[in-house]
């Protein structure tokens, strides 16, 4: 007998299931014909309604226990109607269904590649079904299974068991399985990158896929310098990189802010004849922008024959990062004229551009247009952009009112954005109140402690600041140290405030002292309010002198001829003292200095900054 009809089947299709005599009473040749017809229907099913119509025929024809038909059904559902995948599995995968490796592989793959998180979490659970049914896995099983394990958050144990099972069945050394093992271990985080590298080191390296998997793993694990180093090894080995390799190297360059590497990759793609797909061009736009070459990113965009909404979003984001809000908005208007419909991600870029350029009225107009013109419901990220926009413009009360009227609960990022606005515009009591509430609700997040500690320091309440610091120490919470990176002659140099680990640290420190003398001669006065320590003014000025971006700039001044552009990438927001100091340095030494901090770009030239001090 067939299984009960799935409850989600529409009434007209439920009637169709019983419109003629059941096919399980037909002769074998009729059943075979029904099977072939059902397979053809499923092959052509490209929408949820088509999948449901094929399902109705499947049930009417008694094919509910046919593993070949079920395999095709789940494959078609995964691509045409992913929301039906889980309910179909629950309704059809009963004890009477004969299990084979083809069916289970399809189930694992369909769930692992689903856009729905709940389906991805279930993908690995089908492998035990195979073992309980005494069906042996094959070499196609483990790549799907390991990819499913990679998507399990905080569950490396399942992946380790899958690796052990692959070893047991003799598939761990298969090329495709090994590549997926590298991917899986790198997805588990930095602690497992050594396992990924062990797999990589033990396998043949004749394929670009293998190198790409390990390069991508290093990038995901935050070891972008290692990714670049491995790419150099790949070139030496004679293996030709493919598009995936290039995408990994571009991601590493973006993370490091390594502009010369990004430009070299662009030339390499041209020279080697690697196809410049839309995806690759989008990645190149993003990388050049994050390395500070926004004009180069715009040039790549303008040279694209085909553009997607991601292309437009990438160039709008690039302009937004450098505070070129009017240009970003101009690109958006050009996109509308071209007839490309915007999505919710693109609007984040547009609102960010308005925020960084102080274009409050324009930003409010675009926010309202999301729902009114395009039917896009604003998400919490869009509300966060609006809060940031009001806060940067000094409209703290307007930002607070906006938060109170949000249709969803504000997340910690929005509250911290408000605190930053309160600090920037002297509303310290309100900032303290918000931060205390954040600490009560999210006691494990280090940023909340740091913000409250900073508020106490700004109001010179050193005792309370010390208590907060002790509480952080007790909980094992550490403040992220400021770190600045520069690329010179293909090598990346990292600097931390007060650090003496660089081989040239003595010369660098002497250069920093020379810079301080030059700035003093110009009349620059250190913004000692930025030093949130209980020190006298002279000691505070001394502490500011050794910030990581100043060490990085001093190093480049030492190592490059006059007039050379300086590019610095910093992991934290640039403080107001460094911002003012770098403006002076750009004039004294006649250098263009580009600094990328965690939220935007600052282009310093002739004593001015591209942000117009609106940051």
From TrEMBL:
PPR repeat start-end pairs: 207-241, 277-307, 308-342
Repeat among keywords: yes
Pfam families the UniProt entry points to: DYW_deaminase, E_motif, Eplus_motif, PPR, PPR_2
DYW domain segment(s): 523-615
PROSITE patterns: PPR (PS51375)
Lineage: superkingdom: Eukaryota
Keywords, ordered alphabetically: Repeat, Transit peptide
InterPro entries: DYW_dom, E2_motif, E_motif, PPR_At4g14850-like_plant, PPR_rpt, TPR-like_helical_dom_sf
PANTHER family in the record: DYW DOMAIN-CONTAINING PROTEIN, PENTATRICOPEPTIDE REPEAT-CONTAINING PROTEIN
Protein name, entry field: DYW domain-containing protein
Species: Urochloa decumbens
């Amino acid at each position: 007998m067939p299984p009960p009809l799935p409850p989600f089947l529409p009434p007209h299709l439920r009637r169709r299931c019983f419109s003629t005599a059941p096919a399980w009473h037909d002769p074998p040749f009729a059943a075979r014909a029904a099977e072939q017809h059902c397979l053809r229907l499923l092959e052509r099913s490209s929408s949820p309604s088509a999948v449901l119509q094929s399902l109705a025929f499947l049930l009417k024809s008694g094919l509910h226990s046919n593993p070949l038909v079920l395999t095709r059904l789940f494959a078609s559902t995964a691509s045409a109607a992913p929301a039906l995948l889980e309910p179909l599995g629950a309704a059809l995968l009963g004890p009477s269904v004969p299990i084979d490796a083809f069916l289970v592989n399809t189930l694992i793959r369909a769930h692992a590649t689903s856009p729905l998180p709940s389906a991805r979490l279930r993908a690995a659970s089908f492998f035990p079904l195979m073992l309980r049914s005494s069906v042996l896995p094959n070499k196609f099983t483990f790549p799907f299974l390991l990819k499913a394990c990679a998507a399990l958050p905080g569950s490396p144990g399942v992946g380790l068991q899958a690796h052990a099972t692959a070893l047991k069945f003799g598939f761990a050394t298969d090329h495709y399985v090994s590549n997926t093992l590298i991917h899986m271990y790198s997805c588990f985080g930095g602690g497992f990158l050594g396992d990924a590298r062990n797999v990589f080191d033990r396998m043949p390296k004749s394929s670009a896929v293998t190198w790409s998997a390990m390069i991508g793993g290093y990038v995901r694990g935050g070891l972008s310098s290692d990714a670049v180093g491995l790419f150099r090894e790949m070139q030496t080995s004679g293996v030709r990189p493919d598009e995936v390799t290039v995408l990994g190297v571009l991601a590493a360059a973006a993370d490091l802010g390594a502009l010369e590497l990004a430009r070299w990759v662009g030339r390499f793609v041209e020279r080697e004849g690697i196809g410049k797909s839309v995806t690759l061009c989008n990645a190149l736009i993003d990388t050049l922008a994050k390395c500070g070459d926004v004009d180069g990113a715009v040039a790549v965009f303008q040279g694209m024959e085909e553009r997607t909404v991601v292309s437009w979003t990438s160039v709008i984001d690039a302009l937004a990062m450098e505070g070129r809000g009017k240009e970003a908005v101009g690109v958006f208007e050009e996109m509308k004229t071209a007839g490309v419909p915007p999505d919710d991600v693109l609007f984040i870029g547009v609102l960010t551009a308005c925020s960084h350029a102080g274009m409050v009225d324009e930003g409010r107009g675009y926010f309202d247009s999301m729902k009114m013109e395009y039917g896009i419901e604003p998400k919490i990220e869009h509300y966060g952009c609006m809060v940031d926009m009001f806060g940067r413009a000094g409209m703290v009360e307007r930002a607070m009112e906006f938060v109170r009227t949000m249709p969803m609960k504000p997340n910690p990022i929005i509250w911290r954005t408000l605190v930053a606005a309160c600090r920037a515009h002297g509303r310290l009591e309100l900032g303290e109140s918000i931060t205390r509430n954040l600490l009560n609700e999210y006691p494990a997040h280090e940023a909340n402690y740091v913000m409250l500690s900073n508020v106490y320091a700004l109001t010179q309440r050193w005792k309370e600041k010390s208590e907060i610091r002790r509480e952080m120490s007790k909980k094992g919470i550490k403040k992220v140290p400021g770190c600045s990176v520069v690329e010179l002659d293909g090598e990346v140099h990292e600097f931390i405030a007060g650090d003496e680990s660089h081989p040239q640290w003595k010369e660098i420190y002497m250069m920093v002292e020379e810079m301080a003398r030059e700035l003093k001669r110009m009349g620059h006065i250190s913004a000692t309010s930025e030093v949130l320590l209980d020190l006298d003014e002279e000691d505070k000025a001394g502490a500011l002198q050794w910030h990581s971006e100043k060490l990085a700039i001093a190093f480049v001044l030492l190592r490059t001829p006059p007039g050379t552009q300086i590019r610095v990438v910093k992991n934290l927001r640039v403080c107001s003292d460094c911002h003012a100091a770098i403006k002076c340095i750009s004039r004294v030494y006649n250098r263009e200095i580009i600094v990328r901090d965690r939220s935007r770009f600052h282009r310093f030239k002739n004593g001015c900054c591209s942000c117009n001090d609106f940051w």
